[in-house]
Amino acid sequence: MTDNTVTLVLLSGLLLGTWAGYVMHRSDFCIAGMFRDIFLFKSMFKLRILLLLVATGMLLFELSRLSGLLPLYPFPLIGSPSLANLIGGFLFGIGMVLAGGCVVGTLYKMGSGSIPALVAFIGLIIGSAIYAEYHPWWSSVIRKTTFWPGTVTVPQLLGITPVLPVILLAILSGWYFYRVHKMGGWVRTTFAEGALQQWQAAVLLALIGTLSYVTVGLPLGITTAYAKIAGYCESIVFSEHFGQLAYFRSVPLSYRHPLTGSSLIGGPGPAIDAIAVIQLPVIVGIVCGSAASAWMLNELKIYAKMPLRHYICAFIGGIIMGLASRMAPACNVWHLLGGLPILALQSILFVAGIIPGTWLGTLFLKKLVIR
Predict the structure, then answer these.
(1) Contact 27/198 with Cβ under 8 angstroms?
(2) Rounded distance, CA 244 to CA 62, Å?
(3) Low-confidence residues of the chain, pLDDT below 50?
(4) Is the pTM of this model over 0.85?
């Protein structure tokens, strides 16, 4: 990587992450809650917000592609579908409900002072470390259950240009969104000063995801950096065992930066590589953006007064999410803000798994926490 590329990628990740953290805190934009509320409260309001996020991202991605701003299409690290996507999504759904937030929800809540979110974050790191123990076996499962090898998206599978399905889905979603608007289904009463409506947050997050794709060559993603943190900790505490783990020697990311042409290479090992430069600033930015928003609203405070069972659930949920995000691979943000907008088959399977996983996680939540 050249110095110019490193500076561009670092600043892009930090600025976009900070913006995302600010937006999510101001709107209480919890993707885990969007799925959980379907089963816990029988509410579809947040699911509509999620559909708006995906549809807006799809339209912005396609306009960017047609404008020549996305030479890497599909983007790196997104591959052919396998049963691993479905299984990983299912486990991820369970984990995010128990944790009280997904991988980014945990970060913005942690930034505003939530100690349970910090506990879930620690669980995410541990779950990522656990995955490294059976990575070779799981890699063989992925290879054996992969279908349509070499095919990444639905348009590729059908042999058509992405424009056609995007236009069709834009028309259908536009009609549905207009009906929701006529019924006043986008706005919810808020009492907090400076709060954003969630539909506004969805549009802004879709724009943030597009800007990441254009400037970095990848949509927002952070969970390989969690594995990198886990690898760093394990290399210190269990150095001899760490050296035996093939996962931390893998280098899955290799591409050329679309704006500078510089080579970007990286993996989950504890090295300052492309993954570190791309993802760690996003993590820091989300935490800082949320903290800044909370501070501006005089809401920045330590929030720790919770029953022990809440902490146990958050910890277990974090471990399951960390494990699932490596098995899937990747998390809900990567698939919802990146994969679904390009109709990636992996992402479709991930979401197909996350729905029943959320249902099961909600049942566990009712038994363990909500009494």
Answers:
(1) yes
(2) 43
(3) none
(4) yes
